[in-house]
Amino acid sequence: MANSIMLQDWVTISSPAAGGTVVQNEAGWLDVSGYQDACFYLQIGGCAANATFNIQTSPTKDDVFFAAAGSGAVTAIAQFALTSASVGVQTLKISHWATETNQPLAKYLRWQVVFSAAVNTLSFRVWVTLNQAGYAG
User: Fold this and answer.
1) For the ranges 82-86, 102-106, 128-132, which has the lowest average pLDDT?
2) CA triple 44-78-84, angle to 5 deg
3) Is the dihedral of CA 124, 5, 89, 40 positive or negative?
4) Residues 59, 6: contact at Cβ < 8 Å?
5) With 0-12 CB in 10 A as exposed, 13-18 as middle and 19+ as buried, what is 17?
6) Hey, how many other C-beta atoms are within 10 angstroms of the C-beta on 16?
7) Sequence-ordered strand ranges (E) for the chain
8) Which residues of 72-96 are buried (b: 16+ CB within 10 A; e: fewer)?
9) Among residues 16, 40, 4, 7, which one has the least CA distance to residue 122?
10) 86-111 tens-digit pLDDT
């Protein structure tokens, strides 16, 4: 059975510095234990410049596990490239993590935005549809 859950309600964030990164507050991270598949919907209300929107997963709430194994590099299970023309619902990313060889869906989901310039703002919300583990339909 599939469940649709809001990962982030409407929010406007700003770049902290040139090339700055903003990560979702820990209180908003979604516990997805018990689910195997995920489909992400990103709705943009406004974007002042270029940014990369990442959805990350980790087995624990430790930042290091949201990165590629030991490399410190950003690893995203869904990634959206945003420009000032990115308004509306973005292309969705569907993955069946139980059958893929890349990074599987872990316990926690969070978003991360990497801004390419200073004084950049982004307004958005994120929905995720999740399939329970063991569900084949």
Assistant:
1) 102-106
2) 30
3) positive
4) no
5) exposed
6) 12
7) 2-14, 21-23, 30-31, 35-47, 51-58, 78-82, 88-89, 93-95, 108-115, 121-132
8) eeebbbbbbebeeebeeebeebebe
9) 16
10) 777 776 666 655 555 556 688 999 99
Q: Please give the torsion angle defined by the CA atoms of residues 34, 70, 75 and 38, in that order, rounded to the nearest 10 degrees.
A: -10
Distance CA 117, CA 48 (A): 10
CB of 52 within 8 A of CB of 113? yes
pLDDT tens for 7-51 read 999 999 988 877 788 999 999 999 999 888 888 888 888 888 788
**Torsion, Cα of 32, 36, 37, 43 (10° steps):** 0
**Two tokens, residue 137:** 């339909």
* Distance separating alpha carbons of residues 21 and 17, to the nearest angstrom: 8
